[in-house]
Amino acid sequence: MSAGLNLRGLGPKRKAALQQEGITDLPSLLDCLPRDYLFAENVQAIAEVQPGPACIEGVVQTAPSIQYYVGRSIVRAKVADTTGVMRVFWFNQPWMAKQLKQGEHVVLHGMVQEKEKTGRSLLNPKIIRDKGIIPQYKPLPGLPGKVFASLIDQALALVDDQTAETMPENFLKENNLCDKGTAWQFAHRPQSKEQIITAQRRLGFENLLMYQLAIKSMSSSQETGPEMDSSVFSTEAFWQQMPFAPTGAQAATLKQIYRDMSSPKPMRRLVQGDVGSGKTAVAFGAAVFAIKAGYQCALMAPTELLARQHAANAEKTLSKYGIQCGLLLGGMKAAERREALENVKSGAWQFVIGTHALISKTVVYHNLGLVITDEQHRFGVKQRQRLADKAEDYVPHILALSATPIPRSLALVLYGDLEVSIMDELPPGRQEIKTRIVPQNKRADLYTYIRDKAKAGEQSYLVCPLVEDSEGEEQDKQSATALYHQLQKSALSGIPMALTYGSQPEEEKQDALSRFYQNLASVLVSTTVIEVGMDVPNATTMVIEDADMFGLAQLHQLRGRVGRGSKESWCFLLGEPNERLQTLTQTNDGFKIAQKDLDLRGPGEFLGTRQHGKLLNVYGISNIKLVEETSRVVKDLSENPQKAGLYTRLMKMANDRYANQLQDTGMH
Ligand code: ADP
Ligand code: MG
């Protein structure tokens, strides 16, 4: 197929914008698949719409008006057709106020909600210009939707069935897959739901297959690891040194790790444990073993905050072994950095803790025997691998920690190269976090509660609404800052508060967090940056604005910031009660919650949201059955000698396709 993109409407600027997204030729353009479809073929009469997704058509009766509240905004409008009038609301989309004029004719697609008192209303609808099945794409910066649609049309006309095909015909037949040209046509310009399903099956199958093959190719079973002398360490003795007795799950997991590390084969183990299950202690046990066996250990965390916290903790916990710990961060001053690098290289630091800085080219290790990555889902496979590649004559042991509970069926595929240990037990005496859904009209009571807690010396987190658009960072900052100032002036005046958000300058952030850590601030207003790692046992209240915007797993993670001490802890979810949010009030079990989220929203949403960073862009992952089917096909390909030729060919394709992606995104 043609190299490069030569299409109408595509000047150098737009070409560059596409290039940013990895779109450089027809196939990569056509692989930019819709995230979703709007089924606007069935416009319903307003008098007849039922609760659920719906499409209505009518005239704007009252122009949109906007109202701002603490931390949020609502745009209201009314749309009428010949059968009735529908009230329309947009939450936290202030720009919608400017999108509609009185008297304008519109087609709207959104969720109809029915309430006893106020009747039916349409929530957060999209304004659509055409009817039919409308593909919804991820907005590309610098490329208007109309232009993109025209590019797709041109690409579809140009694509040649023969050259587009990537898989042998009989393989397609055997697996009941349509050809690629048809799949692209159906995916981008569907005429029916059936066509979408056919396209999704073909394209999803291919992607899942490639993804799994790529992961498989990265792990070879022939490697030799650092053999560690099992007699230098005993897990029982380690636990005796700790301030607490291990949970059954901690003890079993560390035992397993000890066995892995004593064998000549390099360990590749993922520990999945709910927030607060005590993964750090297990990781420290592994570190002590490696270091006593004469090796260096490196621990990589996704944020500076978390790295600092681990370093302080390691210092405290491991000093009795005479272990030297050190911290390596990105923003270090030149002299400081030089000294740190020297300490890593000479082995003076036996336990090196840091952020991505640990994998930069200039870092040279000394007998690196164990690599630990915390919050594994935030890193790419290749990032972990790059750290492992820092060892010279052997492949180090790898221990990955993750607090994101992923149901086993998915874990098998996503973490195909890792063995999984599950820690499904919390330390004893842990307070169950009580969770309540709080409707907007009870907000004042909530602030009274927080005031009372502050006076009693306890602390609270206030988490701002999630902003999911291209201006995410800027909006995050605005919404957090606005909430902070508003509360300081009104409901929480006189209460010492701190503010933090993702794009905040590092110094301000450190200052805000340390004030909260020292209880100089009773309330921390923040965006989801606190999701990972904050550990303030004195914090007993978590308030999450607009809770329904978050994934359940993420709400669960956020909630895990409280309940860390001995005092009763509460999590308040602002929003209207619904089945999804109620799950959180009913259970504290992260795996159950993840499963529920998966059932209710499907894995695409489940994995695609911010809680997993850029976790997965593997088209097809939302179809569990397809995931399982392709994992069987991978197994068959790799084991069936008659398919060896095909296996090698597909493996090569997989490597070409995913090598870069696995490296650069946090797909794993
Ligand atoms: P996570 O699995 O979320 O990383 P941490 O390792 O941060 O959890 O542990 C959470 C808290 O629980 C820490 O303050 C830690 O000291 C404590 N902890 C860990 N294991 C135990 C245990 N067996 N008994 C009591 N407290 C524990
Ligand atoms: Mg942790």
Describe this structure in a few short sentences.
This protein is an alpha/beta fold. The chain has four domains: 1-33 and 137-169 and 183-189; 38-128, Nucleic acid-binding proteins (OB fold (Dihydrolipoamide Acetyltransferase, E2P)), CATH 2.40.50.140; 235-423, P-loop containing nucleotide triphosphate hydrolases (Rossmann fold); 434-587, Rossmann fold, CATH 3.40.50. 40% of the residues lie in helices and 20% in strands.
What does this structure look like?
It is a single chain. By secondary structure, this protein is an alpha/beta fold. Helices cover 40% and strands 20% of the residues. It has 22 helices and 20 strands. The strands form four sheets. It has a seven-stranded parallel β-sheet, with helices on both faces. β2 and β3 (72-81) form a beta hairpin. α7 (193-218) packs across α21 (624-639) and α9 (248-262) runs parallel beside α10 (279-292). Mean pLDDT is 85; it is low at 606-616 and 663-668. It binds adenosine-5'-diphosphate (ADP) and magnesium ion. Magnesium ion binds next to α10.
